[in-house]
Amino acid sequence: MTTERAVTSRLFTTSVIEGRIDLDEKYDKAYNNVMNLTRDLNEEESHHALNKAFDDRKVHDELCLGLLVSILADQSKASRHYRDLTLVSRDALKVVTETLIHQIIGERFSRLSESTRRQLLWLVRELVKTGINNVEGVVWCLLRQIAGGDVSQKNIWLAESLVDILRENRPWLDKFPVIVASVTYTYLRILEDHHAPQFASLRQKEVHFVVGLLRERFQDCLMIGRDLVRLLQNIAKIQEIEAFWRDLIHNPTSLCPSFTGILQLLQTRTSRRFFVVRLTPEMEKKIVFLCTDVKFGMQKRYQEWFQRQYLNTPESQTLRCDLIRFIIGCIHPSNEVLCSDIIPRWAVIGWLLSSCTSPVATANSKLALFYDWLLYNTETDNIMNIEPGILVMYHSMRPHPVLTTSLLDFICRIIPNFHPPLADKVRLGVHNSLRQILEKRVVQSLDPLFDNRHMDAELRKLIRDTFPEFCSNSVPGDVKPEDFVAPVSSASVTRMDLMVETGLDFGSSTVNSDNDVNNSNHIGEDDAAFSEDEEEPPILNPPPSPAPNKVKVEEISTGVSTPVTEVVEVKPKVSDVNSVEEKVDLSKHLEYLESDMKTILLEYQNEKDTKQRCDQLQKLCDLIFSEDLDQEEVNNLTTCLCHLLADDLTPGTSLLPQDISAESIQESLGRPLYVLFDNLITLPEDDHRRQPLLLLLVEMHKITLHVGYHFLYFLKASNIKTEKVQENNECSFLTYRDLCKAAGQKDFAGFIIKDLRLCSEDDPRVLSWIIPDIYNSFPKQTRGNAELLQLVLERLDSSQLHDLVCMVLQGSLQMFDNSSFATILEKSLQWETVEQLFLWQLAKAHEIPVDCCLSVMPKLKFTSHSATVTNTHGEALSNILMMLRRESPSEILLRTLLLREFRVEDPTVATILQYWVQRYEDKMAKLINDVVNNKPQPSPNKRKRNQSTKANAVPLDQVLSHLNHLRTACGQTTFFALETMQDTLQTAQNQCSETQKKKYGDLFALIEEEDEEEPAPEPQRKPKSNRGRKPKGRKKQESESEEESSEEEDVKKPSRKRKKNNQVGSDSD
């Protein structure tokens, strides 16, 4: 028995080479504890024994683990022990799920015995059926264990077992969008492997299941992004998939009302989470090791091992796509790795491509390599995802010219053939990729690649036709083979930050792809940056020219810039523009629009009646809903609308009526501009017609920021019009967030501030009217935002401030809280006096405690009767004094005040000390005594609950400076005559250096003055003779007599020391 236990495992397979592991000992111990506890007991007694044992927290985890091992190792006891586990566990089976995720499935699934695997799937089925917390993590780990390109019996069994579990528990699955998307991605991928006749029943089961998910949970599947399209293309010949594919292309809204079409998917970058789920943890470790730890030139034996292990069958060739997508999307080496001799990513990808034995898999692998090129967006995509593609071609020109030419041919032909309706978009994406590669200096030049004289003439012509702007005008034969060198040196890469990646955090709970991958396309300080003249115009002083958008489109399509003289300027007001010039200006843009749209705009231009104009704009909205506008049409329509609506955008008077009422507010919404807004907010969020109108407003907002605050005014005013302010306000203001998202702005707070800043300049009344709704609708971005608060306060008058104060007191408005006030206060020190005073009025309304101001106290400066006030903070200090005046003194407050730098010209500390001494004399004496008796260097073990409290002792010199100021500036001498203060001064005097004793001699002289004024203190101090140092102080006077008793002789030495200190004090007098 002993020998058997030493070589076998309850859960894992063992061999002569791979014996028992450390976990086996742990699992055996836990299992034996459970068996010993329940041996010879019936079910009820066993349950009672376990329930009692689980009360002990120390053995809880071990017993949970023991029951888990029993379930996995013994099928006969599984049901009973699972029932015991669910009934007696105190942590919602957290120990069980974490053990499954991190130890059994995550790390050692491949070593599980066959019986253990079957029990594991039985357990997962029960956990899912019961709805245990975190079981979704267990399911995700099992998805990873379904290996791509593996049609072995074990892998097929796992895929079928898991799909059965998920089908049986579909309501549970629908609760987890991330798992829905991961399951869809996984089974779409492995369907490609299950094409053989023997897998027909399994394939049909998987197809039915995954198509059901796609059709019923398409909103969840949208998070997969562009790789969803890639997987669907690979299996598009399956009948059910083909039907879904037709709906995806021709009837997108049947899948999801807010889904606009395949372009939306292709423009969404796939999260690294989905690339990870298609590699088993063992594959992931090995491929990461190969790309981050193996030296270039030493990789052959590792590649051969990986080939034998995972890529040695015809079916396994499909795994190459998964590996390439993982390397591109997840392995982003740091500059340190890039500059080392570690094998680069392009070399690993080149090996995967060149060693592929299947033509279909090779074509799919090339698509996987260039997939992020097709609709590359410099703003949202990561250059690290396109870098391997260009480097594989560059570095393969000499050793593997066939690979380079095949990749070049592929990238040229994929542009028109990937999806013909999107050929222009794909061309633009590839051009953006190449332009970004050159701008970031991933390669110095494309000439050696595109003008290779060894290249086939037909391919050279194809390249020149496809990429004319990237091909030089020189004769191709002039390029020498010696030019085919490494495109970027290590030193060059070091200077660029574009390769920096924060790490591989696959366990993150977020599913947002923007958080998965570092999107920074930053150019290093030493790199040459291109002019941004061709980019969108900066949104600064409205209204700017709309032409750059048009120029951008034309340059992309023709490669020729439009002359600046042809650019049409949008004027701020129609009345400022000559009528002849108006028609000429509009005609240049109207010619790009359809006839119906052109007619409506011309009628609007000639119409003078406001109501008729509103009707014309409504017709335009209806036309927009029914048409599919391309970007060029949107740009030209935007320019026309900004020009025609200039009177509405800059009316010259306040949008807010003089007398605010429901009727007057409704009348103010009669502007034609507001027809666009009204159509937007009335459409449901999932209505596909909403997106074109939203994009149109985004383009208008880029041209003139006036659109932003007009929209905010409309949102609040429309709620008042419907008399459902509280009910609709929060919901309608979320449309403004949609505007920000559609504009691609990640800084929502900055987006709000830009709009409100223009509003504060144009219409301060509107700003004060809408600001409460801004704070209530977007608390995360606004509350505690110092920049926004200053923007509001600098435009307020006293009446508007009173309105805000009333709303704060009513509880309907919160502009900041205790945690953010200290930061706001510190920043407010640079504000104007009126702005600071308004801030303190709001602080009082918010009931900000004085504790929130203490951290700023040391930074506040003040000088009495100063000729300049630029470096003083009288506004903050006076208000803090008023707050302190209402507080009872405490050690925290006192220490904070005494830590303030002493300056004779600053009466702040002395003032509040004087105020407290007059009202809390005894308490102040006790607090000052406590401060003085603390050691200058506190113990490091002392608890630190407040930065300015007990953890930081006040330097003695600082305390004495403030006390001396209290004595001189406020004439406080009686306070120092208190017994406690006498004690304090005596203690301070004993701790002082000779220099300090001279410096504060007048203060210490109060000790002597006290003793001389009371020559017979014996009767009064006798009851307190056992407290403090007073008995010693009293006996010092008596020690000069030579007739003292022996008891008095015992204290003679300290008496002399005190007399010496007093003499020093007298000398200084």
TrEMBL record:
The keyword Iron belongs to this UniProt entry's keyword annotation: no
Record bears the keyword Ion transport: no
Signal peptide limits: none
A Pfam family recorded for this sequence: Ints3_N
Subcellular location: Cytoplasm; Nucleus
One GO CC term, this protein: cytoplasm
Ranges of compositional bias, category Acidic residues: 526-537, 1040-1049
Function: Component of the integrator complex, a multiprotein complex that terminates RNA polymerase II (Pol II) transcription in the promoter-proximal region of genes. The integrator complex provides a quality checkpoint during transcription elongation by driving premature transcription termination of transcripts that are unfavorably configured for transcriptional elongation: the complex terminates transcription by (1) catalyzing dephosphorylation of the C-terminal domain (CTD) of Pol II subunit Polr2A/Rbp1 and Spt5, and (2) degrading the exiting nascent RNA transcript via endonuclease activity.
Name used for this protein in its record: SOSS complex subunit A homolog
Species this chain originates from: Cherax quadricarinatus (Australian red claw crayfish)
